[in-house]
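User: Predict structure, ligand iron/sulfur cluster.
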Amino acid sequence: MNNKTDNPTKINLVKEILAWKKKREAVILAHVYQPGEIQDIADFTGDSLFLSQQAAKTQAKVIVFCGVQFMAETAAILSPKKNILLPEIKAGCPLADMAPYEKVKNKIKELPEVVVVSYVNSSANVKSLSDYCCTSANAVQIAQAIPAERDILFIPDKNLANFTAKRSKRKIIPWQGFCPVHNVLTKEGVIKVKKLHPQALLLVHPECRPEVCNMADYIGSTREIIEFASNNQAKEYIIGTEIGIFHPLRKNNPGKQFFPASENMICQDMKLITLEKVLYSLQSLKPRITVSEDIRKKSLNALNRMIEIT
Ligand code: SF4
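Assistant: Predicted complex:
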């Protein structure tokens, strides 16, 4: 955090958070789509699975998960004895909500022969119905590990399903969900931004539409996009994912320029978390995220199968 430019209220708030963090012996995790000031106070920043794995590894008993519900649930599945706090209980994921438990259960009944792969961006209930979980970074690897004669039902993101089918050359039945933030980016929008920055490389997330992915110089998860931009010689990049990623990109690469593929790629749920809410969570140890033991054990099987493969 830059103390020279931040206002005194914010500086005091950050001091209080750090004091309470120490008192609670807590760890703060922040997804890279979180506001910059939240990323700055975190012990770890990264993608959802990386953060859940950090939650499992740490000795801390209190984890403040600055992200959305499915992320905190994943941490609770991997670390049932820890106190997982989500500073804003209403921070959900519209993509995860597009695959409700009952509908998924009925679909699986209709297609009993398929292998069910659920993206981590799904509820714990949906994970419990799945054979495997996957992330955007390992979806292709998971699909390739499934016996070729088995069809795959991929839940909930149709764009990631499409990308995975193309790369893995496997038959995939996509659930018709999509991330409203990534789906907002259109081919026409990309053409306009490319005209403004003709030298820039286009890096996009696989939750983007297929026609957008087809135009990209690189398609990757948030972690992969950050790594690609940090290790590449190019000086300019157009970024097709949620705008929170600009915070680590610009911080780690002061000599490079990053432009949004669309100004509208903002996840409102991710922005619900504030410094005040983080402080309240540490003080009150609320809101706590828990997963019932039955659902947890079944979801853990799907997560563990993914971890074994990758
Ligand atoms: S960016 Fe998309 S997938 Fe991620 S939390 Fe927001 S709505 Fe869900």
